Amino acid sequence: MKQLFPILSLFLILYLSVSGQRVVQAKASPQQRPTKLFVFGDSYADTGNIQRAFSNSWKDPYGATFPGKPAGRFSDGRVLTDYIAKYLKVKSPIPYRLRKVMPKQVKYGMNFAFGGTGVFNTLAPLPNMTTQIDFLQHLIQHKVYTALDLTNSVALVSVAGNDYVRFMQTNASQGLASFVATVINQTRTNLIRIKGLGVKKIVVGALQPLGCLPQMTAPTSFQRCNDTTNAMVLLHNALLNQAVTRLNQQTKDRSSFLILNLFDSFMSVFNHPSTHNIRSKFTPCCVGVSSNYSCGSVDMNNVKKYRVCDDPKSAFFWDLVHPTQAGWHAVYNKLRTMNALQHILY
């Protein structure tokens, strides 16, 4: 456990979540295309739920590529949520906190994800996934969404990561492998609950190769992934795959739940970066000028304490843990070539 603590301590800076395989093939027809997207999870899916005062995602240079200014996304531009919405041919759902400001946009679904959260309470005092699902249930009870709306919807679930930091901070006597199983069990409970609200299809992202994040590749001058960390990720993903497979076996259509294989899609881009016009695969584009600062930091005189690479479009990672828009676009394209996304459609 002592050896694992440095590995898991990387989660202290993660505002992310989350290998799996396609589970069941589902053929779509034009009449079956979903019209709404509901999103639950953390910063790999959050599009602006955290208040401006509490996150660097609302500070320059975040959002520089899209929409041209900080907008609450943990990237220079679009994130996973935006690309899944693009595939579904719906507008990216509005953040939950903006539902009353932009009421006409609720017809496309809603994003309940908050950066830094997990399936359990984490170090970030923000709504965990249970509470996020409560938000959707509350909206259904108040008839913001009807049964028909839910039938024509897809849920995207970005899970894990931040739960492990909380686990290490509590010095729990429970073993790591046992805790991973606990996280997966709660994830399974969450998926069942979302399905019970009437959502037709639930897509959950597997953990990406955390050992390849800049925070972990920095000791090798951003040259090599940490295989020990990635081995832990594979345990999480194997248990998630088992859980999702069982859920599908227990449903009538056997295609309600789907895993997005983010691990393999990330690794494919890393192994063939030039195919995706990526020249810098592990080096972050935006970093603090020293270890005391991070992307978006300024001093008391509002002087920038970060530096940005010349071409974010050629970098896979934006900061120490989050992909650039170019990185997410490469992952999205890989998921499409793997025929993974077609199974989101009914």
UniProtKB/TrEMBL annotation:
<dbReference type="Pfam" id="PF00657">
    <property type="entry name" value="Lipase_GDSL"/>
</dbReference>
<dbReference type="InterPro" id="IPR001087">
    <property type="entry name" value="GDSL"/>
</dbReference>
<comment type="similarity">
    <text>Belongs to the 'GDSL' lipolytic enzyme family.</text>
</comment>
<protein>
    <recommendedName>
        <fullName>GDSL esterase/lipase</fullName>
    </recommendedName>
</protein>
<keyword id="KW-0443">Lipid metabolism</keyword>
<feature type="signal peptide">
    <location>
        <begin position="1"/>
        <end position="20"/>
    </location>
</feature>
<keyword id="KW-0378">Hydrolase</keyword>
<keyword id="KW-0442">Lipid degradation</keyword>
<keyword id="KW-0732">Signal</keyword>
<dbReference type="InterPro" id="IPR036514">
    <property type="entry name" value="SGNH_hydro_sf"/>
</dbReference>
<dbReference type="GO" id="GO:0016042">
    <property type="term" value="P:lipid catabolic process"/>
</dbReference>
<dbReference type="InterPro" id="IPR035669">
    <property type="entry name" value="SGNH_plant_lipase-like"/>
</dbReference>
<dbReference type="GO" id="GO:0016788">
    <property type="term" value="F:hydrolase activity, acting on ester bonds"/>
</dbReference>
